[in-house]
Amino acid sequence: MIKLSVVDETSPLEAVILGTAQGVGDVPKLEDAYDPKSKEHIAAGTYPKEKDMVQEMDAFAKVLEKHGVKVYRPEIIPDYNQIFSRDIGFVIDDKFIKPRILKDRDEEIQGIQYVIDQMDPAQVLQMPEGAHAEGGDVMPWKDHLFVGYSEAEDYEKYIVARTNRAGLEFLQEQFPNKKVKGFQLNKSDDNAKENALHLDCCFQPIGTNMAIIYKGGFKYEEDYNYLVNYFGEENLIHITKDEMYEMNSNVFSISPNVVVLEQGFDRLAKILEDKGFTVERVPYAEISKMEGLLRCSTLPLHRKNSN
Ligand SMILES: NC(=[NH2+])NCCC[C@H](N)C(=O)O
């Protein structure tokens, strides 16, 4: 039986699902892309190749294994993008949530069914019809659950709006002891620099009391201010619009002191090293062309001390 326990974003990681680029197949048609950065690279002829992405993900897997983490990989579904495991399910406390996600991606869960089958069925929850969420929008953080979501006006308008109010409310009902705080994000289906696809594309807690944040990702200044008050200005690392586009907030914590970064994130690496973090760097620039990075490709199952 697989033990589930995740109460925050950084406690020492013991078990994780890491997506796979194997079988991702050829360049999708422009009209089949579901995020603006992929569209940009399809149009420019620079869409990433399977072989390069497989190498990047293997490098990431090696770093996780070096730190003693048990890594599960999805079973391969031919010609299907299974890189971003984060979104297709998520663990909060000792529950595995099966959310309702973007239609174009709803077969992805089949690749990790063999992992779900090893969980206690009483710990697996299915979100009801009409309630939508993707794991990139969901972040347990101590007594809080931070959730990126869109109200109907945006949810119905954008393919990149993936979590709705019903999804947020489902999470509040299931976890009555947590303070569920929703944040509306700025969305664009056509311009990646104006789009916070998920909450983890503009914000992520690190260490024990810090966070990486891009103010422009938040639709409402009061939501951004909530986080400034919660973490304290001195504990926030602000990133620029270009850094958001390069996905600097989508790093991944193996523990409160060890953070995995894309190898080109020099400015962020320096800031984190100056604060005493151990920084692991992996090549992930090809994967970043699909508007996801390290956090997006992981689905933590168990973090130590968290329960
Ligand atoms: N957790 C995340 N931010 N995931 C990114 C997923 C990117 C993927 N291209 C999509 O549009 O669904």
From TrEMBL:
It catalyses: L-arginine + H2O = L-citrulline + NH4(+). Pathway: Amino-acid degradation; L-arginine degradation via ADI pathway; carbamoyl phosphate from L-arginine: step 1/2. Gene3D superfamilies: L-arginine/glycine Amidinotransferase, Chain A. One of its GO terms (molecular function) is arginine deiminase activity. One of its GO terms (biological process) is L-arginine deiminase pathway. SUPFAM superfamilies: Pentein. It holds the Pfam family DDAH_eukar. Its EC number is 3.5.3.6. Signal peptide: none annotated. It is an enzyme of class 3 (hydrolase). PANTHER family: ARGININE DEIMINASE. This is arginine deiminase. It comes from Marivirga atlantica. The lineage of its organism: Bacteria, Pseudomonadati, Bacteroidota, Cytophagia, Cytophagales.
